[in-house]
Amino acid sequence: MEEAPKNLTEHSYQYIKQQMERNVLPPGSRLVNRKLASELGVSAIPVREAICRLASEGFVEHIQGSGAFVRQLSREDLDELYVLRDLLESFAASEAALYISRQQLEDLQFIIDEHREITATMVERNAKHTTPAQFNRWVDCETEFHEILVDASRNRLLKKVIQENRAITAVFYALRQLKHKIITPESAEETCAGKEQLLAALTKRDAELSRKIMSEQIQAGRRDVLAFMRKQERERNAS
């Protein structure tokens, strides 16, 4: 079988994944090779290879006789991913405290400022939660924040393990599948405060404190997300 050029497969992969993240292709959507190939202006080969890659990463499932479908990550999936994140990212934070650059510290501060702006807007408007646009912006910032920290650890093997196990991307992909109401002014303020504490520890080169704060942040996220998912399940069962 002819193989697709790597750049076309990567382009197809990124396009499909972005459509999934933006909920254009929500959980349960069937991935039709020809339709996606037409949208991308490529043959079906790179699309098929991209879908296989997404399936290997757990984002897509193949159902015999039916095709490939966007997979809904379960509460159990997320619980396990949060445990993995705590183990890996807490260590990454402690290493980052030793090696993080001034530019990376500034980049983290910029992201915190973005989060502060969203939080302030919610408070000013007396909103109970983020809008869909604010929610997507929030999750984009969260993803970037954690990726910068992992890069700052300067540990190539750690970065490879995190990428291969989807320890960051799968969690934030799953967050996009949840309702934007999950982020309230109270939870946003708690997240901002925790990130400011982490940034202060990183700036002081305090590895142990950075590890501790990162672990607390991840566990707080785990608690809130799983509680929100349980609430959603109860509401679906009651309807």
UniProtKB/TrEMBL annotation:
Name a GO molecular-function annotation: DNA binding
- Source domain of life is Bacteria
Q: Has keyword Transcription regulation?
A: yes
Return the InterPro entries for the record. Answer: GntR_C, TF_FadR/GntR_C, Tscrpt_reg_HTH_GntR, WH-like_DNA-bd_sf, WH_DNA-bd_sf
| Alphabetized UniProt keyword annotations | DNA-binding, Transcription, Transcription regulation
Give start and end of each HTH gntR-type domain: 6-73
Its signal peptide is none
User: Which named protein is this?
Assistant: HTH-type transcriptional regulator McbR
* Species, as recorded: Gimesia aquarii
Give the gene name: mcbR_3
